[in-house]
Every structure is written in structure tokens, then in C-alpha cells.
Write a structure and sequence with these properties.
The protein is mainly alpha-helical. The chain has two domains: about 200 residues, no CATH class; about 140 residues, no CATH class. Strands 3-4-5 form a three-stranded antiparallel β-sheet. A hairpin with a 2-residue loop joins strand 3 and strand 4.
Length: about 400
């Protein structure tokens, strides 16, 4: 009897999960693992005498990420917004995540470990952590919290007041955005994009987002002009004929073009043989197109679109505003990273270091993304629950 009741309970729990989302994520991750081996085997053998080095490392992160995704999917997402009493002061749990991320970002700015020509990492023994990846989780959760409790500042009758409310809500995250923007503009754009999409969904009047777009464009232009190497990337983007023949973007476009419609076959890439540095990370989409052709690239984009559709559906069916905004934030993050990565490798936008979600090599990125999917799966598990209207819902104000 106990065994049968346990089986029924497990079936009941699993039946509420969005199984398609979980399967899609794991399928894309396994596909990425195969492509990482194909893209990195030559480099790993040449430099480390171990063709499976990157494959094994990513495989370990994938197993850890899958376990983390499953574990987090069983944690009620509302826990992140509960308040803890400290000397009669109620502090939401997400605030502690905000403090940790702010401390890590400022530490990385002044004492970061250098890897790949940038000091964006913090080294913990053999492990390198990129704080900006953890900050994406922070912006999803804290962005949902701020949007939920301060939505009135985004919904005034006056468009200018709405815009000022957006600026104020965005300024709350300045302690993290500023050090990220100084170090890694692409990550700052993604973080700002996550918040903007969340605030857009909360706002009833959307017209003032015209001013928001203008503000963000001005901020990006200012940050580009603040660093000479960023200006040089803009110059190369506008005038690709001035690129060094060995430039990875140019070589990446050669790889895409040489793959044709159906590709050269898995493992038969030529450009991965030293022509494109770190081909298994940000530039892996070029090898996918070279080996599997344009058809393979389009198929992967189709998988991402299906993945985003499942997350969008969860956001629509979420039982409360927190669940909806969490799914919206994860949707925005994945969509922005996919668009930026593919735009860079096809020279549709200036070069920047944005990995392809679930596919590019990188432990921090994979673990964080799968943890976020775990939270979204928990939201999907609770779509049938009936929760009071936001105006009456005060559970998070209590311990």
C-alpha cells in the first residue's frame, strides 16, 4: 500500500510539471555537449593531449546542472520572496541574494581573476565563477519582487511620471549594474533587458517605453565611447573589410558559408583547426552551421523558439504575479542571449562575449541557466493552484 501510494504521489507531482520544457532543455544540453566535443577535440588534444577534456568537464557540469534543476524544481518559488525578521525589521530573502551579487561584482571589478583577456571571474580553488551569471538570477528574482511591490510607480496617469518611475526602479539595481557595465557591456545589456521586459509586462501604459529605449541607447553609446576597444569593435562591425583576416568573426562567417545547406558532416569542420580561438565557447554556432549546415542552424533556432514558447506559456498560466514575472525574466534572458550570440557570429551586431545558452562551453552559465529552469518548472507545477489577488496576498510579509 505504501509503495502504491508513493507511486501515485510521484505521478501527481510529475504530472504538473511542464515535461516538454524539461525534455527540451536536456535535449539542447546533450546536443551542445556533442558539439563541444566536435569543436574542441582538436584544440584539447593539441594543448592538453586529451581530446575529451572539455567534453568531460562540460559533462560533469551537465550532470550537476540536471541535479540542481530537479532539486530547485521542488522548492516553492514563493520562498524566495518571504521575509526574515532581523531585530523587528522584515527583510525579503531575495535582498540577501542582491547583497551577495553586489559584493561579488565589485570584488571582481577590482580583484577579478583574468581569463580570456578579461578579469570577470572570481577564482575559488580550481573553479572560476563569473559573478555576472549569478547576477542574472538576482535580476530575475529581485526584478520580480521590485516590479510586484512597486508597480504603482510604473502605472501613473502621466507618461513622464511613469518614465521617472522606471528610472527609479532601475536605479535600485545600480549597485550591480554599474560594475558589470564597466567590465562587461554585453552582460549589462542582458541584465538591463531582463528588468525592462519585466517592467514592461507590469506596466499598463506602454507608451513611455519609447523614452526607455532612447535612454538605454544613449547609455550604451556612452559606455561604448568610454572604452577604446569597444569603439574599435563598432568600427570593425561597420567596416568588415578592415578586419584582420584572422579575426574570429570573419573566420566564423567563412565557417557558416562553407557549411552550405547541409554541412560538411559532424566532426568535419576545418575552421575549428585553430582558425577560430575558443571555438567551443561563444563561436560554437559557427561550427554547428559548418558541420550541420544552415539546416542544422535553423533546427537549433527552432528548438530555442519552442523552448521560449513553453516558458511564455508558463508565464501566462502562472498562479500569481511572482510566478509570471519569474518566467518572464528567464524568457527575456534566454531570448536576449540567443539573439545576441547569433547576431555576433553572423556579424549582425558588434562583437561581444555572449555564450549560446545550454550549448556553449562554460560551467557557470550552464549551472545558472538550469537552476533558473528549475524555478520555472516549479512555477509550472503550481499553475493549478488558486492564490488570492495580489492586493490581498500578504503571505510574503510574514515569516
Amino acid at each position: 500500500m505504501k509503495k502504491s501510494s508513493a507511486k501515485i504521489k510521484i505521478k501527481t507531482v510529475l504530472s504538473h510539471y511542464d515535461a516538454i520544457l524539461a525534455i527540451l532543455v536536456l535535449f539542447i544540453c546533450v546536443f551542445g555537449l556533442i558539439m563541444i566535443y566536435s569543436a574542441s577535440s582538436y584544440r584539447a588534444q593539441y594543448y592538453y593531449q586529451d581530446s575529451k577534456l572539455y567534453f568531460r568537464n562540460q559533462g560533469r557540469f551537465l550532470l550537476a546542472g540536471a541535479a540542481l534543476m530537479i532539486l530547485i524544481s521542488f522548492i516553492n518559488y514563493r520562498v524566495y520572496f518571504k521575509c526574515i525578521k532581523i531585530k523587528k525589521i522584515k527583510i525579503p530573502v531575495v535582498f540577501f541574494l542582491f547583497l551577495i551579487c553586489a559584493a561579488l561584482q565589485w570584488f571582481a571589478l577590482f580583484n577579478g581573476h583574468e581569463a580570456g583577456g578579461s578579469s570577470r571571474w572570481i577564482q575559488f580553488g580550481p573553479v572560476n565563477l563569473q559573478p555576472s551569471e549569478l547576477s542574472k538570477v538576482c535580476f530575475v528574482l529581485c526584478g520580480a519582487f521590485v516590479a510586484r511591490w512597486f508597480r504603482f510607480v510604473l502605472n501613473n496617469k502621466n507618461m513622464l511620471l511613469n518614465f521617472l518611475g522606471y528610472c527609479g526602479a532601475m536605479a535600485v539595481f545600480g549597485a550591480i549594474l554599474i560594475p558589470v557595465a564597466l567590465q562587461n557591456l554585453s552582460s549589462a545589456i542582458i541584465l538591463a533587458g531582463i528588468l525592462t521586459v519585466i517592467y514592461f509586462c507590469v506596466s499598463m501604459d506602454k507608451k513611455y517605453f519609447i523614452l526607455v529605449v532612447i535612454l538605454l541607447v544613449v547609455a550604451v553609446i556612452f559606455l561604448i565611447n568610454a572604452e577604446s576597444y569597444r569603439s574599435a569593435r563598432i568600427e570593425h562591425f561597420l567596416n568588415p573589410e578592415t578586419m584582420d583576416p584572422g579575426d574570429q568573426i570573419l573566420q566564423g562567417m567563412y565557417a557558416i558559408a562553407s557549411g552550405g545547406l547541409f554541412g560538411k558532416g559532424l566532426g568535419n569542420s576545418v575552421q575549428k583547426l585553430g582558425n577560430i580561438p575558443e571555438v567551443h565557447t561563444d563561436m560554437i554556432f559557427t561550427i554547428i552551421c559548418e558541420e550541420l549546415g544552415i539546416i542544422g542552424g535553423i533546427a537549433l533556432i527552432g528548438l530555442f523558439l519552442l523552448l521560449l514558447w513553453r516558458i511564455f506559456k508558463i508565464a501566462l498560466n502562472a498562479p500569481d504575479m511572482y510566478g509570471s514575472l519569474i518566467a518572464t525574466g528567464v524568457f527575456a534572458q534566454i531570448a536576449l542571449q540567443v539573439m545576441m550570440n547569433i547576431a555576433v557570429v553572423t556579424n549582425s551586431m558588434p562583437a561581444t562575449g555572449v555564450p549560446l545558452p545550454f550549448v556553449s562551453y562554460g560551467g557557470s552559465s550552464l549551472l545558472i541557466l538550469m537552476a533558473e529552469i528549475g524555478v520555472v518548472l516549479n512555477v509550472s507545477k503550481r499553475t493549478d493552484e488558486v492564490i488570492p489577488d495580489d492586493e490581498e496576498y500578504d503571505e510574503f510579509e510574514e515569516e
